[in-house]
């Protein structure tokens, strides 16, 4: 079957996103074929200034802005706001994740832009939403993890609450924002009208807590304690040491447990009352862990993996970022790309995890330098002359 066009080919996106949430949503759009124009203030968005080594743009900036065009625009100037409106007149989507009310204070909020372009999808990402009593609370990934309940269930048993290592609130917010935009674009095909689409990070994160709601939160309103790598109703369910690393291993069913006993050559424990059911294994979790750990400690990580795979017991090696970045599986599938980035050097960057079959995986184009496409874009979209563009630059508009 011949390959079709990329699904968002022909869609133009004005990307005012910053940090992670907004830029990840537009990254997914760019990977799906949209023409994404990243609009930054004259000094660049925060990630352009957050490399702790002091050596230029950060790695996340390079990853999140692949396959985008980049321009600068001073929205605090009247000319800059007028230029944004000229860009929006030809756009399909405008996305921003400023603090709620920022765009309205600048005079280029959703109502004004959508009045000028009724087909515009205006997408807004925030920590707590555009309405409600918490609307104006400061929202960073860790504060959303705290307020959403994620930290309350993360950490060692008896220890303090902990944040999840990855910026999951930002990225879950970005994924939901992407899906909201695509949903609105689909509706527009039938209605001809744009929509205001918003996603609050707190609301995007909350459903992930419900996967174990029955274990974490009882009807009487009592939350169970943090359990680290353990599970409240499954054992074994833990990370176990090996001779050269660690392995995550779990037995969801009795069948898994019996297979693990075979792998460990411990079938003498088949009739041990302490391990007879999920309930008794959970009640005797320390004894279960001692049995499993005594086995894993004598083997390498790969040896444990091969044996559990042979006996069909769920497990996985605990890999560090360097190992995952070199994963031949993800490289072969086209998720990971090794490129020579003009600002970051030779790096491995991810593509989109969304695969639309019968469309090709796009070549990864390095993120633009600050204002790289000013002349190209402003010379074609608004059709400004070289002299006009130079004037805007001199006046601090672009």
What would you note in describing this structure?
- There is one protein chain.
- The protein has 398 residues and is of the alpha/beta class.
- It folds into two domains: 12-207 and 333-394, Crotonobetainyl-coa:carnitine coa-transferase, domain 1 (Rossmann fold, 3-Layer(aba) Sandwich); 237-319, formyl-coa transferase, domain 3 (2-Layer Sandwich), CATH 3.30.1540.
- It contains 17 helices and eleven strands.
- A six-stranded parallel beta sheet has the order 3-2-1-4-5-6, sandwiched between helices. A three-stranded antiparallel beta sheet has the order 7-8-9, with helices on one face.
- The radius of gyration is 25 Å and the shape is elongated.
- It starts with 11 loop residues before the first strand and ends with a helix.
Helix content, binned percent: 25-40%
Order of the strands making up the biggest sheet: 3-2-1-4-5-6
Q: Uncertain spans, ≥5 residues at pLDDT below 50?
A: none
Multimeric organization? single chain
SSE order in H/E notation? EHEHEHEHHEHHEHHEEHHHHEHHEEHH
Say how many strands there are: 11
The computed structural class is: alpha/beta
Q: Provide the CATH top-level class of the largest domain.
A: Alpha Beta
């Amino acid at each position: 079957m011949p390959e079709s066009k990329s699904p968002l080919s022909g869609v133009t996106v004005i990307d005012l996103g910053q940090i992670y949430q907004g830029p990840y949503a537009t990254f997914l759009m760019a990977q799906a074929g949209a023409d994404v124009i990243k609009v930054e203030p004259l000094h660049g968005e925060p990630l352009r200034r957050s490399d702790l080594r002091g050596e230029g743009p950060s790695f996340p900036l390079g990853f999140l802005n692949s396959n985008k065009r980049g321009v600068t625009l001073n929205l605090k100037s009247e000319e800059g706001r007028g230029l944004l409106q000229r860009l929006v007149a030809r756009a399909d989507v405008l996305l921003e994740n400023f603090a709620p009310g920022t765009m309205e204070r600048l005079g280029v909020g959703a109502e004004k832009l959508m009045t000028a372009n009724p087909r515009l999808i205006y997408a807004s990402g925030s920590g707590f939403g555009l309405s409600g009593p918490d609307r104006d609370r400061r929202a960073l990934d860790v504060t959303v993890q705290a307020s959403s309940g994620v930290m309350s269930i993360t950490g060692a048993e008896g220890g303090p609450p902990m944040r999840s290592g990855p910026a999951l609130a930002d990225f879950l917010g970005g994924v939901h924002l992407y899906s909201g935009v695509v949903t609105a674009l689909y509706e527009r095909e039938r209605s001809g009208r744009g929509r205001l689409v918003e996603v609050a990070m707190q609301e995007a994160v909350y459903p992930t807590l419900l996967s174990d709601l029955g274990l974490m939160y009882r009807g009487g309103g009592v939350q169970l304690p943090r359990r680290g790598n353990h599970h409240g109703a499954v054992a074994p369910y833990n990370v176990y040491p090996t001779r050269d690393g660690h392995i995550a291993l779990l037995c969801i069913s009795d069948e898994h447990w019996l297979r693990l006993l075979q792998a460990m050559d411990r079938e003498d424990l088949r009739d041990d009352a302490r391990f007879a059911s999920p309930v008794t294994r959970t009640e005797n979790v320390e004894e279960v862990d001692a049995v499993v750990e005594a086995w894993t400690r004598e083997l390498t990580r790969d040896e444990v993996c091969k044996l559990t795979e042979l006996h069909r017991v769920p497990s996985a090696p605990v890999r560090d970022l360097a190992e995952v970045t070199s994963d031949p599986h993800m490289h072969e599938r086209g998720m990971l790309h090794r490129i020579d980035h003009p600002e970051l050097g030779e790096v491995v960057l991810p593509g989109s995890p969304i695969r639309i079959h019968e469309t090709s995986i796009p070549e990864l184009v390095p993120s633009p330098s600050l204002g790289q496409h000013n002349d190209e874009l402003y010379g074609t979209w608004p059709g400004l002359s070289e002299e006009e563009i130079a004037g805007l630059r001199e006046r601090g508009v672009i």
